[in-house]
Design a protein that fits this description.
Blueprint lengths: L1 H12 L1 H21 L3 H30 L4 H19 L3 H35 L5 E6 L2 E6 L8 E4 L9 E5 L2 E4 L1 H4 L5 E3 L4 E2 L4 E2 L4 E4 L8 H14 L3 H26 L1 H4 L4 H14 L3 H4 L3 H13 L2 E3 L2 H7 L4 E4 L1 H5 E12 L5 H12 L5 H9 L9 E6 L3 E6 L2 E6 L1 H4 L8 H12 L3 E8 L4 E13 L3 H10 L4 E5 L4 H11 L3 E3 L4 H15 L2 E5 L5 H6 L2 E5 L5 H6 L2 E3 L6 H35 L5 H19 L5
Helix pairs in contact: 2-3, 2-5, 3-4, 3-5, 4-5, 4-10, 5-12, 5-25, 8-10, 10-24, 10-25, 12-13, 12-24, 12-25, 13-24, 15-16, 24-25
Length: about 650
């Protein structure tokens, strides 16, 4: 029973291969029959080879002719093969029927090989995406129940055991683990996840058991949206492919007209006999067909999309991969793109007998009651020290916070808030705080109640830290020949220029509203034509849409990042920008090579046909060989 099942599976998955194999077998038997003089038997086998090997091409060609009123290369191949067979029967030179069958066979083999090549690209993409299990373990009334993914509802609590694939996006409500997110983000190392953090479908749970709460429909999970985008990328033709397809329609008509002229004029002009004339005309139809030219682009771009997906770079379509290779100027947003978007403690300065630990723990004791990003950054910086949460905590919005720590009142806030309680600030500390602020830091002051008034303990500088890879990425982009790199941000001029100076960007546009960013992108496009915008995909949505190529950084799982941008750097790693450009440039290079190979083969075969050195089988081998060659050449981008 196993072998019939495998055979049925093979016939379903590879019908083009099966047709080519049967065509080849019938052709071989037909050739043997002719060799032994069994003409009747040969004339039964060879037409069967024509029908089995050429059915699909004939169907596609006739469908295009009837529905679109256009000629395509499939129909031209069938006409050439039938013409050879007709000429063979007419002249009783039956080897010409063999030639026509060879044309059908090689065309069928070529189609099978191209199908394998394209399926390899598709498998490379789908292997990244086909990661989610079909079912999930749901906790219902204290009992674990297995439920199909498509039946999950928002609010369901899902159990994920150690080593299991996470079935859908969800928020962790219980547990702690490390998650391997390589398939989604391209990160090589697992990341730690705990209560309150989001995990994504298709990622691999580590050693810890997790309890998730479904906060959005399973169909809108990150991986499902990525699959839809990749499928869309496979169906949308880039401008270069659309140009080639338009060229093919006119080119096919020219071939037909030229073929008719070649089939009628040479006997009158050059004195050829009719057999030679028709044979050369049929060979012309084969060698002049632009199959290789048609295969020069899409396999390359689809392979590039698959390669990018492997590395955490999601191209929405082949057009964006093409454009990425032509980028001459890049505009970067600051917060969340060149910086991490997360405030961290950068400096702590103290007075008198106080240590940095004293200042941080006193501030953290108060700030642990606040959810403000600055408060969270201070608490995180004090995690390595021992402290207890303050009591009687009160916050003054926009100014500061005060409370009781170890029976002493502590105040934390900006300088104006502190000056309400402290009459004289230390001059050295004031000067240092001013310097920090000029460097783009936010300064938080800490003071403690004494017997008489308040004493300043110290000051804490916090900053949105620059991505470690930012400066190197900017330097690499310049080495790659990017002509202009600018920063556009809504932040203040002082902070923006400080960040730009540290990472090597010369031109800064600060204090911009969304419409102002649009104006900057438009002005860059006037000068450099192809401009990329790199942003977080949310605040920068208008600029991302306006840019020639919009690239979303961070915001993994954000609908805006996936819908507005043309490219998403899933791993939230800025250095992938250089990889994306290299991939775009390499795809352009391979496409150009493929076009040269395709046109070169056509030129050589045409010349050989007119000089009489190319017969029909050789023409078929050269034509189909060049098609397979450029298809395989395009697959180089998979590596």
């Amino acid at each position: 029973m196993l072998y019939p099942q495998r055979f049925n599976q093979f016939t379903q998955e590879h019908p083009d291969t099966l047709a080519a194999m049967l065509c080849g077998l019938l052709l071989f038997l037909g050739w043997l029959a002719l060799s032994f003089g069994w003409l009747g038997f040969a004339l039964l086998l060879l037409p069967a080879a024509y029908i089995i090997g050429g059915y699909e091409s004939a169907r596609e060609g006739l469908t295009t002719l009837i529905k679109e009123k256009e000629l395509d290369v499939d129909l031209l191949m069938i006409v050439a093969a039938l013409g050879a067979a007709t000429l063979g029967l007419w002249r009783r030179e039956y080897h010409l029927i063999i030639d026509g069958a060879i044309l059908i066979l090689i065309f069928a083999i070529s189609g099978a090989l191209e199908g394998y090549a394209m399926r390899r690209t598709e498998r490379s993409i789908r292997s990244l995406m086909s990661l989610t299990p079909d079912t999930a373990t749901v906790l219902q009334k204290g009992e674990e129940t297995t439920v199909p993914i498509n039946q999950l509802q928002v609010g369901d609590e899902i159990i994920v055991k150690p080593g299991e694939l996470i079935p859908t996006d969800g928020m962790i409500v219980s547990g702690y683990s490390t998650i391997n997110q390589a398939a989604i983000t391209g990160e090589s190392l697992p990341v730690e996840k705990t209560v309150g953090e989001e995990v994504f479908a298709g990622t691999l749970n580590g050693y810890g058991a997790l309890q998730l709460k479904l906060h959005k429909p399973a169909s809108s999970s990150l991986i499902q949206r990525v699959i839809r985008l990749v499928e869309q990328a496979q169906t949308e033709a880039p401008p270069s492919q659309e140009f080639i397809e338009r060229l093919e329609k006119g080119y096919a008509k020219v071939i037909v007209i030229a073929g008719l002229l070649l089939a009628t004029l040479p006997p009158f002009v050059w004195g050829w006999d009719w057999e030679t004339t028709i044979y050369r005309a049929l060979t012309f139809l084969v060698v002049a067909s632009p199959c290789a030219l048609m295969a020069a682009i899409m396999p390359t771009l689809l392979s590039g999309i698959a390669n990018g997906a492997k590395q955490g770079i999601l191209f929405k379509n082949g057009a964006q991969l093409e454009k990425m290779g032509k980028v001459r100027a890049i505009a970067f947003d600051k917060t969340g793109t060149l910086t991490t978007g997360q405030v961290q403690v950068s400096q702590v300065l103290t007075t008198g007998e106080y240590s940095p630990e004293n200042v941080l723990t006193a501030a953290a004791a108060l700030e642990s009651s606040s959810e403000h990003p600055i408060a969270q950054a201070i608490v995180q910086a004090a995690n390595n020290y021992n402290w207890v949460r303050a009591t009687e905590v009160q916050a003054i919005p926009g100014q500061g916070i005060f409370g009781t720590v170890s029976n002493q009142t502590v105040i934390v806030g900006n300088v104006s808030f502190l000056q309400q309680y402290v009459t004289q600030l230390p001059e050295e500390l004031q000067a240092k705080a001013t310097f920090w602020e000029e460097q783009g830091n936010t300064v938080v002051w800490v003071a403690q109640a004494q017997e008489v008034g308040y004493a300043v303990m110290g000051a804490i500088a916090l900053a949105d830290t620059i991505r470690p890879e930012a400066a190197n990425t900017i330097a690499q982009l310049r080495q790659m020949g990017i002509e202009q790199i600018v920063m556009i941000t809504g932040d203040n001029e002082r902070t923006a220029r400080s960040v730009a100076q540290q990472i090597g960007i010369d031109q800064v546009f600060a204090g911009l509203l969304p419409e102002d960013k649009l104006d900057v992108i438009r002005s860059l496009q006037k000068k450099y034509h192809t401009v990329a915008m790199v942003g977080d995909g949310i605040n920068d949505a208008p600029a991302l849409a306006q840019a020639s190529v919009g690239v979303a950084m961070g915001a993994v799982g954000s609908d805006v990042a996936l819908e507005t941008a043309d490219i998403v750097l899933m791993a939230d790693r800025l250095e992938k920008m250089t990889t994306a450009i290299k991939l775009g440039r390499r795809s352009q290079s391979i496409v150009k090579q493929n076009v040269v190979i395709a046109l070169g083969f056509i030129g050589l075969l045409l010349a050989g046909n007119f000089l009489g050195n190319v017969n029909l089988p050789i023409g078929v081998i050269g034509h189909e060989g060049s098609t397979v060659l450029v298809t395989l050449s395009g697959l180089r981008l998979l590596k």
